[in-house]
């Protein structure tokens, strides 16, 4: 319970309606204890929007996020879905289409600055379109962008202006995809913050979303980031996050492998080439994560003896918080052009067309799958 000055119990943020709490800064309704007496009593995220034109990232679990999404299909809305190109399948909101109904969806594909400079952007856009179709998501527009480098944001804002009409704008996405950067840009370009942030102007709105008033009476709705437990970014401890998530453009690493060879990606996961003709594999991972090659027959012993030391991150201390590994066996058909995708860690491109039997060992719960090659 939060007791501001005056002795009355206040449970809800006056801005977004979220239950106020002091414990978790990255959850809805966070209010520093020293700010509990201010008027109006609003959470830190609403305070930043109102006073600094800046939104802070918050997160909710999957069930709570789906509850929040439930209202969009009944609204006149434009939905901006932000995904991370480095973790495309891991950050795409599965089943979004059934929540948004017939409302238009703009897919903002963020972090394109991480891809090699020789990337063919037209081919990448076509790849994204095919993947959206595979996942049942209809998009009115796909915009490739980089929040960090401010690439493509002008085009994204133009697309929003062309598509919005008389609609509210809902911004949705998983954690760590760059959602707050876009929200902050929208606030600067579209909002009138002379009006107090409040849900009272929007009857029937769901709690835990921040409504940022627009000049025409509509709003930008900042939804909390969804936490997907199958992403490495949700599993690793904070000190390892900067190693797993790349900050600089990926430098593809090519390995010529014979069957019976293994690659360790630090101590995070392992890739086994079990059976197949000599061929090359290209790893697209953070440059801070060291790769160690060994024979498959020695792999178990190497991990047992050197996890947390030679094979790190994670450190020995961090290993205590990581789930045990699960083995995923993946057969690559002859003539295919496939990636082996490990959510939040990157992917391995199979360069040959001879076919291969492979396996990935990753912490339990991490999503591992095959897909058509991105690059």
TrEMBL record:
<dbReference type="Pfam" id="PF21516">
    <property type="entry name" value="YqeH-like_C"/>
</dbReference>
<dbReference type="InterPro" id="IPR027417">
    <property type="entry name" value="P-loop_NTPase"/>
</dbReference>
<protein>
    <submittedName>
        <fullName>Ribosome biogenesis GTPase YqeH</fullName>
    </submittedName>
</protein>
<dbReference type="InterPro" id="IPR006073">
    <property type="entry name" value="GTP-bd"/>
</dbReference>
<dbReference type="InterPro" id="IPR048422">
    <property type="entry name" value="NOA1/YqeH-like_C"/>
</dbReference>
<feature type="domain" description="CP-type G">
    <location>
        <begin position="62"/>
        <end position="229"/>
    </location>
</feature>
<dbReference type="InterPro" id="IPR019988">
    <property type="entry name" value="GTP-bd_ribosome_bgen_YqeH"/>
</dbReference>
<dbReference type="InterPro" id="IPR050896">
    <property type="entry name" value="Mito_lipid_metab_GTPase"/>
</dbReference>
<dbReference type="InterPro" id="IPR030378">
    <property type="entry name" value="G_CP_dom"/>
</dbReference>
<dbReference type="Pfam" id="PF01926">
    <property type="entry name" value="MMR_HSR1"/>
</dbReference>
<dbReference type="GO" id="GO:0005525">
    <property type="term" value="F:GTP binding"/>
</dbReference>
């Amino acid at each position: 319970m939060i007791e501001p000055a005056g002795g009355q119990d206040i449970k809800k943020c006056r801005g977004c309606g979220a239950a106020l709490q002091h414990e978790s800064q990255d959850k809805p309704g966070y209010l520093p204890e020293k700010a509990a007496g201010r008027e109006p009593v609003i959470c830190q995220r609403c305070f930043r929007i109102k006073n600094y034109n800046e939104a802070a990232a918050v997160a909710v679990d999957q069930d709570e996020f789906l509850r929040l999404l439930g209202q969009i299909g009944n609204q006149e809305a434009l939905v901006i879905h932000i995904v991370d190109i480095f973790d495309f399948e891991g950050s795409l909101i599965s089943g979004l289409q059934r929540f948004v109904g017939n409302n238009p969806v703009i897919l903002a594909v963020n972090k394109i600055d991480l891809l090699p400079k020789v990337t063919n952007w037209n081919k990448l856009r076509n790849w994204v379109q095919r993947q959206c179709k595979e996942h049942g998501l209809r998009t009115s527009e796909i915009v490739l962008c980089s929040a960090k480098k401010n690439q493509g944001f002008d085009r994204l804002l133009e697309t929003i202006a062309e598509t919005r009409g008389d609609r509210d704008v809902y911004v949705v996405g998983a954690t760590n995809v760059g959602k707050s950067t876009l929200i902050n840009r929208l606030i600067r370009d579209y909002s009138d913050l002379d009006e107090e942030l409040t849900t009272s102007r929007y009857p029937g709105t769901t709690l835990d979303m921040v409504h940022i008033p627009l000049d025409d009476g509509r709003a930008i709705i900042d939804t909390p980031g969804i936490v997907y437990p199958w992403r490495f970014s949700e599993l690793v401890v904070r000190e390892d996050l900067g190693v797993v998530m790349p900050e600089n453009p990926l430098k593809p690493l090519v390995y010529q492998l014979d069957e019976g060879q293994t690659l360790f990606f630090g101590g995070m996961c392992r890739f086994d080439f079990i059976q197949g003709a000599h061929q090359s594999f290209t790893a697209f991972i953070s440059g801070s994560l060291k790769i160690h090659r060994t024979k498959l027959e020695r792999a178990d012993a190497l991990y047992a003896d050197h996890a947390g030391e030679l094979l790190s991150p994670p450190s020995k201390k961090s290993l205590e918080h990581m789930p045990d590994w699960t083995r995923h066996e993946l057969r690559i058909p002859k003539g295919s052009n496939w990636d082996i995708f490990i959510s939040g860690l990157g992917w391995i491109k199979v360069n040959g067309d001879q076919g291969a039997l492979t396996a990935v060992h990753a912490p339990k719960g991490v999503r591992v799958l095959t897909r058509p090659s991105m690059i």
